[in-house]
Specification:
Elements (H helix, E strand, L loop, with lengths): L2 H34 L5 H43 L4 H14 L5 E7 L8 E7 L21 E3 L12 H4 L4 E9 L2 E10 L8 H65 L6 H30 L8 E5 H11 L1 H6 L3 E5 L6 E5 H18 L5 E8 L5 E7 L33 H11 L2 E7 L5 E7 L5
Parallel strand pairs: 7-9
Antiparallel strand pairs: 1-2, 1-5, 3-4, 4-5, 6-8, 9-10, 10-12, 11-12
Length: 466
């Protein structure tokens, strides 16, 4: 039973109970008068009857006032419930008519909204109740005149919007026309068609329907716009990733050939003069940087995709760190940097994705290599945590990272501005790739200041990788 039905039922029961009490009291009083004075003047009985009628009339008016206020309150709650759940326009219209039908405000209803998302466009019905199935899809033309404010009419002429519901509401029904507005803009209109006006005679109820439903449909329009915007952004993100992957793979093909030629030239570097040797060395370094950039682009594209398949295995992190240091040893030697490995003799072993940890470790040591000073030192520490997981720390003795920049450096392509004006090699992708990969395989990464200067990058992994 709806709130409106409970109001009606409660009002009827209270009124009947009150009338019964009045009748009993008047009857008892008349019987007592007859017993005491059989020849009592009939005027006394007339006064009793008149008093009873006045009391019944007064109580009836009071009950109507109470019921009217309770109906307003019930409709207010009903409309607020419609506002509480985000929906699109069609779903909002459907739920609105369902709620109003349960409240028995009318036998037939329709919601018409300005077409094609244009608030000044032609109205088209989007949801109906009490109309033939599929009637709204026929896009019948709207009335020539639409109310500027809520109004209740008893039209003589049948309009195209009334004819389909004539079998339910009769030839001359009451029609409540409720504009749906958001400020000065007209969003649409609600029509409620009923055989009898009932609660629709209350101008306050029509005003509540106009303002609250106007807000509900305004929210629905915003919800649709936000949803469409989200889909557009998802489409743009998908196209961006596809573009990055295509470019990266296109670059890889000629890069493989360039790498092969660079390796051949380096094999004969001992027979070259100093200038030629420097050019060959520069070529090899450039190929390595370009290859690293391509790998970062591919990993960044993978990291945000659900299709990136993580392979969880028992991974010896100590072996991963030693392999990464050996891979980057030429770059470290080029800048005359030393690496101090503080690792357990074995392990720790954590259940995670080996490829992820290899990539993250390479990125962190490579980052320390680029940002640390020539001839500097890099410390790599690996420990087992109290919960059976692992903690990896990579510390350089470079200039450090200001506190305000410690989250920004994990954004793709973000680079900290240097006062010296000397460009730092790198793509600005390594740390972003590391964070995205760790987030997806159950780890975390952050940076903090080292007490002796420089930056300390920390990685933590749970024992089960979850």
């Amino acid at each position: 039973m709806s709130a409106m039905q409970r109001v009606r039922t409660g009002q009827r029961r209270v009124w009947l109970a009150f009338v019964a009490v009045i009748v009993l009291l008047v009857g008892a009083h008349a019987a007592l008068e007859v017993a005491v004075a059989p020849d009592l003047d009939p005027l006394i009985y007339a006064i009793d009857a008149g008093t009873a009628l006045v009391l019944v009339l007064a109580f009836t008016l009071y009950l109507r006032w109470v019921a009217r206020e309770r109906r307003r309150e019930a409709i207010e709650r009903l409309l607020l419930d419609l506002l509480s759940v985000p929906r699109n326009i069609e779903a909002t219209a459907t739920e609105t008519l369902k709620a109003l039908a349960e409240a028995r405000l009318g036998e037939a209803m329709l919601v018409a909204i300005a077409g094609d998302g244009d608030r000044d466009g032609a109205l088209r019905p989007v949801a109906t109740h009490g109309y033939p199935r599929g009637w709204a899809a026929q896009s019948p033309p709207p009335p020539e005149r639409l109310a500027e404010r809520p109004e209740l009419t008893h039209p003589k002429a049948q309009h195209a919007w009334l004819e389909p519901a004539a079998s339910r509401v009769g030839k001359r029904p009451w029609v409540a026309e409720v504009p749906l507005r958001s400020g000065p803009d007209a969003l649409g209109v609600l029509w409620i068609v009923a055989r009898r006006p009932g609660v629709l005679k209350d101008a306050t109820v029509l005003g509540l329907l106009s303002t609250r439903l106007g807000a509900a449909f305004d929210h629905a329009a915003l919800y649709e716009a936000a949803y469409a915007r989200e889909r557009d952004l998802e489409g743009l993100e998908t196209r961006r990733r596809e573009f990055m992957a295509a470019i990266a793979h296109e670059i890889r093909t000629p890069l493989t050939s360039i790498q092969a030629f660079a390796d051949l030239l380096q094999m004969g570097q001992g027979e070259m003069d100093e200038t030629a040797g420097q050019l060959v060395t520069s070529l090899g370094q450039g190929v390595m940087r370009l290859s690293s950039l391509v790998n970062d682009l591919i990993d960044l594209g993978r990291a945000g995709q659900a299709s990136y398949a993580f392979q969880r295995d028992e991974v010896d992190l100590g072996a991963v760190v030693r392999s990464a240091e050996a891979t980057l040893r030429p770059a470290l030697m080029l800048r005359e940097q030393s690496v101090e490995l503080d690792l357990p003799p074995e392990g720790p072993v954590v259940r995670t994705d080996r490829r992820v940890m290899e990539q993250v470790t390479l990125n962190l040591i490579s980052n320390a290599n680029r940002h640390g000073p020539p001839g500097g030192a890099i410390a790599v520490t690996l420990r087992t945590t109290s919960d059976g997981g692992a903690r990896l720390e990579v510390v350089d003795n470079g200039p450090g990272i200001p506190e305000v920049e410690r989250e920004r450096i994990f954004q793709p392509y973000y680079r900290i501005a240097k006062d010296t004006g000397v460009p730092v090699p790198g793509s600005g992708l390594g740390l972003a790739v590391a964070r995205q990969l760790l987030d997806q395989c159950g780890g975390r990464i952050w940076v903090e200041a080292d007490p002796e200067g420089g930056a300390r990058f920390c990685v933590e992994l749970r024992a089960n990788g979850g």
